[in-house]
Amino acid sequence: MLGARAVAPIVPSNCLGWNNCRSDRYLLIGYVDLSRFESGVPDAFRGSETNARYADHARLARVGITTGECTSRGIDRLGASHILCEGGFMSTEDLSTEDLPTENLPSQNVAARIIDGRAIADAALADLSVRTRQFRDETGHVPCLAAVIVGADPASKAYVQMKAKRSVAVAMTSRTVELPVSTTTEELVDVLRALSADPSIDGILLQHPVPGHIDERVAFDAISADKDVDGVTSAAFAAMALTGGGFESCTPSGILRLLDATGVELSGKHAVVVGRSPILGLPMGMLLLRRGATVTYCHSRTVDLAAHVASADVAIAAVGVPELIKGAWIKPGAVVIDAGYNEGNVGDVEYAAALPHAGAITPVPGGVGPMTVAVLLEQTLAAAVRAAEVRACSENHDSRVGPDPAIASDRL
Ligand code: NAP
Question: What Cα–Cα distance (Å) separates residue 55 from each residue in 59, 94, 221, 298, 382?
Answer without folding.
Answer: 6, 13, 46, 30, 41
